[in-house]
Specification:
Elements: H1 10-15, E1 49-63, E2 79-91, E3 94-103, E4 109-116, E5 119-136, E6 141-144, E7 147-149, H2 152-163, E8 171-172, E9 188-189, H3 190-200, E10 205-219, E11 227-245, E12 254-255, E13 257-276, E14 279-292, E15 296-300, E16 327-331, E17 336-348, E18 354-366, E19 381-384, E20 387-392, E21 405-420, E22 423-436, E23 442-443, E24 446-448, E25 452-454, E26 458-459, E27 464-477, E28 481-495, E29 501-515, E30 518-532, H4 537-541, E31 556-557, E32 564-575, E33 582-595, E34 600-601, E35 619-620, E36 623-642, E37 645-663, E38 676-697, E39 701-720, H5 724-728, H6 733-736, E40 753-765, E41 771-785, E42 795-796, E43 799-800, E44 809-822
Parallel strand pairs: 7-15, 8-9, 12-43, 31-36
Antiparallel strand pairs: 1-2, 1-44, 2-3, 3-4, 4-5, 5-10, 6-7, 10-11, 11-13, 13-14, 14-17, 15-16, 17-18, 18-21, 19-20, 21-22, 22-27, 23-26, 24-25, 27-28, 28-29, 29-30, 30-32, 32-33, 33-36, 34-35, 36-37, 37-38, 38-39, 39-40, 40-41, 41-44, 42-43
């Protein structure tokens, strides 16, 4: 996962050009005495008022490419816009406010607050666009939102040409010589077959979703009442298409298609609270409903128009087979419902002691959508011992009509606080249990990639877990010194996973020093995680009725369960010398997870004849994560030499480093240490920013400037141990150059390398008491160099790709706004 994010800042700068301050990890503050209750003020005595704030304008943009990165989380239209509306007022005990931003745009927001006689209504609506990629292309096209097809005529042509290749003839991606493959003179090229169709296909597939999120809260009783009652309603709809739908006909025929998104999530809630001299109590119940308008997705096989099969058809189209299904069908997210009940209280024991506890129970259900058939391929028979039973898989009975999925959740939370003089004592506890009660269904086999029946008895696995978290800490506070020390304990118990449970202990301390215009802060944490009874085959075997030799590396330790040590240190300094016109803030943080590399048991090595020689003493170094490190440094400065000028700047340096190892294995598990490779993924980032606010003519002319430059350098160094290439692939020069430190030809230097330059300026003219005109211009330049996504080929070995555009762009945006304000 990338730790460093690229943010296109145009919309953000419009909203707030000031620099966001980095949160300070200061010690938890000591409690202060409860202040005396202030006399109640009758809101109806406040003067009545009405206010209006309206901004209208126009936007003109120019971007040189169709990259979705320019619009990724925002909408910048051409033409007239309404950037802001605000209407507010008060009449007696009736108050109202309506605030709207970017009206009619995809990223529009609305907030409504109405109050009368203590009864209040709060409402909001937020539009959230997300553009994944533009102008993708495919041989397939939609005939329905959840059904993408290819003309039967084209399918027939492709099938005829592939089937016409002699049984002993070669079928290959592009029939070009490469490592491990020498084409014959009569080799049949799949790339040549599909290229004319792909060239003719329109580049009109846009991968984007739109979220519309609404929320209503109604408080039914006055705020000063001891008893409060409220109802709430949440509504979110998501529509569009997103990328990388998992559609495949096997190892030799992956077809990337858009995934249709048409979700509706609703939540109805009833909330109540009561307060007394002893404390407060609250309770709530919520009903949540998720509905997907598309239960499944249908997609054509470009290379077949009729169904056929053979035992190896999951590799088609290839030299060994031409068979397979004519189309596929996959399930999408199913409808589900959740009911949650919450009750809790906060109890007061004198002025310095509090105890808070609550419990939340949840009931999850999923039983509406029917299970899809075993396969779409009408020719695949169910076999026993390699002999057909006469039953075709596509219409064979399923183990159940629907899943009958259900789970119960229990969450317990508690917090205790007391104080002894300047010392505060605190303890927190959380227990969460996900009890998956979905039935287990047994199957005598399954259809592999809609191509062939596999006589491998399987059983479904209802995963669950229990998490317990405890945190105890003490803090001391005075005018100069703040100090905190604490201990955290986290235990995770999992079902059907590799380990029975894992537990992690973390000790931390924080210091805060204040002296005049200097503030110093420091934080440190050390921790360690361990597991009990780690058996890697447990998780794999859970889904097999008759488990055989493991397919996964038994010396692998998964990162969420592996033994590891944590070190985290950080420091901050804030300086405000003299008259406060200059402020400086600097911070550094280091976090490292170091994974234990002590030898572990080579579990089940006896199942692989000849492999035990590679595991002397029955132990090997583990595979998986070695370390995960992240360092950052940032400095921010602000200088205001006069009321007319404010200048600010910042710099951020980030360094992410992940090191892990693995081992090459084919169909049979391999324990040979010469076949181990390491992967070192690094991301280094530098971000510079500066801005200024000017008052040119008081109460008339003001201006703002803002600039930002960010460079991210990613790298993926892959190193192979000596002997790797000869052990698996022979003496191949390309792989031999990869051995040893530094990675050589196997490394990927273009690994999410990005640059973003952003400049924004605006000028404001207050030409009347209620009127302000403004003009703004912004410039952005974004480049990305990434080996995984930088190509434009729509067909590569065994795979069709949409290749939607989410790459470089250069853009200019101009704004003209007119604002009317009446208070």
């Amino acid at each position: 996962m990338k730790r460093i994010l690229i943010v296109a800042g145009l919309a953000l700068a419009l909203a707030s050009p000031a620099i966001a301050q980095t949160p300070s990890p200061s010690p938890s503050p000591s409690p202060t005495p409860v202040p005396a209750a202030e006399p109640k003020v009758d809101a109806t005595l406040a003067p009545d008022f009405k206010s209006v704030d309206v901004t209208i304008g126009a936007i003109q943009r120019s971007n040189d490419t169709g990259s979705s990165k320019f619009f990724e989380y925002r909408d910048i239209p051409n033409g007239g816009v309404v950037p802001h509306l605000n209407f507010a007022g008060k009449s007696g005990d009736f108050r109202w406010e309506l605030d709207a931003r970017d009206v009619t745009q995809k990223d529009q927001t609305y907030f409504l607050n109405v109050e009368k006689g203590g009864v209040a209504l709060h409402g909001s609506y937020v539009g959230i666009p997300h553009d994944f990629g533009n102008s993708g292309k495919s041989l397939l096209s939609p005939v329905a939102p959840n059904e993408w097809r290819l003309s039967d005529t084209v399918q027939q042509v492709y099938q005829n040409q592939i089937v016409a290749v002699p049984a002993n003839g070669q079928i290959d991606y592009n029939c070009q010589p490469r490592f491990g493959f020498t084409p014959s003179p009569t080799c049949f090229s799949l790339l040549a077959l599909v290229t004319p169709g792909l060239n003719a296909a329109p580049a009109n597939i846009d991968l984007r979703i739109q979220r519309g999120r609404g929320n209503l809260e109604l408080d039914l009783l006055p705020k000063d009442s001891d008893f409060n009652l409220g109802v709430s309603y949440f509504h979110e709809r998501r529509t569009g298409y997103r990328a990388a739908n998992g559609t495949s006909f096997g190892f030799g025929n992956v077809v990337e298609t858009p995934e249709p998104v048409n979700y509706l999530t609703q939540d109805f809630g009833l909330n109540a609270a009561f307060k007394g001299a002893w404390g407060t109590a609250h309770a709530a119940v919520h009903f949540n409903d998720f509905e997907n308008k598309n239960d499944y997705f249908i997609f054509d096989n470009p290379f077949r128009v009729t169904d056929s099969w053979d035992p190896g058809a999951y590799s088609a189209p290839a030299t060994s087979t031409r068979n397979g299904a004519s189309y596929g069908k996959t399930s999408l997210y199913p409808d589900n419902k959740t009911v949650t009940e919450t009750a809790g209280a906060t109890l007061k024991f004198g002025p310095q002691t509090r105890l808070t506890a609550d419990v939340t129970l949840g009931q999850w259900t999923q039983n509406k959508d029917p299970l899809i058939p075993w396969t779409t391929n009408t020719s695949v028979p169910i076999t026993v011992g390699g002999v057909s039973t006469g039953q075709l898989a596509y219409n064979a009975p399923l183990p159940a009509a629907t899943l009958d999925g259900k789970a119960h959740t229990t969450a317990l939370n508690g917090f205790f606080h007391t104080a002894v003089g300047p010392i505060g004592l605190n303890a927190r506890y959380r227990h969460y249990d996900f009890d998956n009660q979905t039935p287990r269904y047994s199957m005598s086999g399954y259809v592999r990639f809609d191509a062939a029946w596999e006589e491998v008895p399987r059983i479904t696995v209802p995963y669950g877990y229990t998490n317990d978290y405890f945190d105890a800490y003490a803090n001391y506070g005075s005018g100069v010194l703040g100090l905190e020390v604490g201990w955290k304990y986290n235990k995770m118990k999992r079902t059907f996973r590799e380990s029975d449970d894992t537990s992690e202990n973390t000790f931390r301390t924080a210091v805060d020093l204040r002296s005049g215009w200097v503030v110093l802060r420091g934080i440190g944490e050390v921790g360690s995680r361990d597991y009990s009874n780690y058996e890697l085959a447990n998780s794999e075997d859970a889904s097999f009725q008759n488990p055989g030799p493991p397919a996964n590396q038994t010396v692998l330790r998964r990162p969420d369960q592996a033994k590891r040590d944590l070190v985290r240190v950080g420091g901050q300094v804030e300086l405000s010398p003299g008259d406060g016109k200059f402020n400086l803030f600097a911070a550094y943080s280091h976090t490292q997870f170091k994974y234990n590399q002590d030898p572990v048991e080579c579990q089940d090595v006896s199942d692989f004849p000849g492999q035990a020689v590679y595991c002397p003493g029955g132990e090997q170094k583990p595979l998986g994560m070695i370390h995960d490190k992240y360092d950052s440094f940032n400095v921010e400065a602000n200088y205001a030499p006069s009321p007319k000028v404010n200048i600010y700047a910042f710099y951020t340096w980030e360094d992410g480093d992940i090191l892990q190892n693995g081992r090459q294995s084919a169909a049979t598990l391999n324990f040979a240490p010469n076949d181990v490779f390491t992967v070192n993924m690094t991301n280094k980032g530098d971000t510079f920013g500066a801005g200024a606010d000017f008052t040119i003519v008081p109460e008339r002319w003001t201006a703002k400037l803002w600039a930002r430059y960010q460079k991210i350098d990613g790298n993926n160094d892959i190193s192979l141990l000596q002997g790797y290439s000869t052990a698996i692939y022979g003496t191949n020069p390309a792989l031999n150059s990869c051995t040893g430190a530094g990675g050589g030809a196997c490394s990927i230097p273009e690994f999410d390398d990005t640059k973003l330059t952003y400049v924004y300026g605006s000028v404001f003219y207050h030409f009347r008491k209620q009127w302000t005109a403004s003009a703004s211009v912004g410039y952005e330049d974004y480049t990305i160099r990434d080996a995984q996504t930088g190509n434009t080929l729509n067909y590569m070995p065994a795979s069709f790709f949409l290749q939607a555009n989410n790459r470089d762009y250069t853009a200019w945006v101009g704004y003209l706004n007119l604002t009317y304000s009446l208070n």
